[in-house]
Amino acid sequence: MSRNSANLDVLRAIAVLMVFCHHLLEYGYFSERRVSGLGQFGVLIFFVHTSLVLMMSMERNSGAVNFYIRRFFRIYPLSVLVVGLVTILHIPSNPAREYAFLGTFNLLSNFALTMNLTHSPMALAPLWSLPIEVQMYVVLPLLFLLTRTKHAIRNLLLVWIVLLPLAYFQPLMKGPHNILRFAPCFVPGIIAYVLLGKWRPQLPWLFWPPFIVAIYAGYQLFDPHGYGWAECLALGLAIPFFREVQVQWIRRAASAIAKYSYGIYLFHLIAIYYCFDWLTGPTWLRVAGSIAFTTVASVASYHLLEEPLIEYGRRLGHALAPPRPEEPLVQTVSMSQ
Prior knowledge:
Blueprint: H1 6-27, H2 38-60, H3 63-88, H4 104-112, H5 115-118, H6 129-136, H7 140-146, H8 152-174, H9 179-196, H10 208-222, H11 229-238, H12 248-259, H13 261-277, H14 283-320
Helix pairs in contact: 1-2, 1-12, 1-13, 2-9, 3-4, 3-13, 3-14, 6-9, 8-9, 9-11, 10-11, 13-14
């Protein structure tokens, strides 16, 4: 499986659509049909996906310097733009609230994506997951080295087990949005990366989307606290078992959604706010407007901002830390794409 895997595109597309649908249900005046935990589980899928594809990235590119430069130019440009927009346009953090200026310190923390460290309010609700991802970058290169050990799967499972009590008790001390709370959700993606070279896919691709839905059902039914650690482990262990999706229209649709998913993730709540608070007319028109607004904003931001700076970060990273000569220069995807 490569970074261009259709199965990973499907996984990512389902994740971002879960988040989008959750907020449509929550803030789009569908409260009687709200599906609790849908968006949270979508973010947990992002964490598994992120760690897996970043392991692939580190396999192809040399050194932590290259990794951190590429990640900086992937994550920060769009998040800075969105924080700036919601501040200038007085957009509330979610449509259920009124806009309130965060204050200079809290605003700077949002620009830096350190809100969970400074206990600052979010400028926009979906931003909560980005500090966790950024902080996970600190240890991902070390965990990549662990994948090169003789008993990598055993060692990674031990890391996952050790993290469980830390993840359980940490929220009681420092709040829910911290790296230890979600660390057990990243490790399964690294396990999947190791297993991809050891297990041959046997299950038909047709079972892949239903399997993801089944994992979500287990999350809803058997995980009342919404931790998601066991569900993420099950997902990571299962990824190598499934054959690649072969239907072309599914591959193209999933690839497009995955490509623009970072913009979808950050812009969709702004779209819901404008379309449900400003538009008049039937609900279906407001939903359609939210989808159209999000689509235009995410496509435009990708081609005008994200793509050029991804390329700049790639070139800068390769200039400062050249990739191995025998391996091609490739671009990777992560939770934030």
